[in-house]
User: What shape does this take?
Amino acid sequence: MIQKMATEELDRFGEKIIEGFKLSDDDLRALLSLEFEEELEKLYYVARKVRNYYFGNRVFLNCFIYFSTYCKNQCSFCYYNCKNEINRYRLTGEEVKEMCKALKGAGFHMIDLTMGEDPYYYDDPDRFVELVRTVKEELGLPIMISPGVMDDSTLLKAREEGANFFALYQETYDRELYGKLRVGQSFEGRFNARRFAKEQGYCIEDGILTGVGNDIESTLISLKGMKANNPDMVRVMTFLPQEGTPLEGFSDSSKLSELKIIAILRLMFPECLIPASLDLEGIDGMVHRLNAGANIVTSILPDSRLEGVANYDRGMEERDRDVTSVVKRLKVMGMEPAPQAEFERVLGC
Ligand code: SF4
Assistant: This one.
């Protein structure tokens, strides 16, 4: 399909997507099978065309506050799983408040409050709600919460305190693979928490991992699984083997690159937020992801001592994950941060 298209045909393909054309399963298989750089460039070209139609050269910036790295779960892919003997931290409410004070006027569109499923908060979820209140009072910005599978009542309370976005990644909709990744956790429980949040007026983010034993068919299942959720943000992230975890030595042979899937996501979800994460390759990686059709930069750290989701830069002295460096590089690319009002229009809040 796309391999043989000349520029005019690629433009027409992008226009068809904007007009509402839906890719069939076979279309998706064909796109997931692309391998050669020249054909992938054509895919990125169409994805950028669609992204630019809705968002122009404007990009959103998400501030990542990983406030607790404690977790009761044992996801096989995750550095923070409870079996891994690592140094952990939990910021106090006062520390989060101080961090927010320092973030005033920094240029973020949204603050992402993330934690592992930390028993300290799961035993008394009002502590988490209190944190949401503090961040809203200090910054007044949209808040994304990524607390794991929180109970419905806590999600409601957090919404009342001003949380706008609920991020909860299924990682895969291939149930067999899910059992290997999210060890001992309910597939439906995750799905239902996201659905409940959406019904209560949250925007929701779903996400999948690639490079973790997923082939084309498994990826197709996941793409369609995300579609069924009607998400507002869709993420794909490459699995990075983590020291001390069951998948530490895993090596993937598929050609299902994150960039290819980002571009396909843009064609499937033309108006959605699609992250360009700094987690795997920092700001250089952000450029590739934006060029594949992403439009929100995530895992920008407010403080270089905090963790990201994955950390290509763990232990490095210089961590190039601050908002100033991001904006500087966006300018080089001919892109710029969107006005806050534009982000709030996207959120519908
Ligand atoms: S992915 Fe989340 S829930 Fe799973 S172990 Fe890591 S922090 Fe815990």
Q: What stands out?
A: The chain has 14 helices and nine strands.
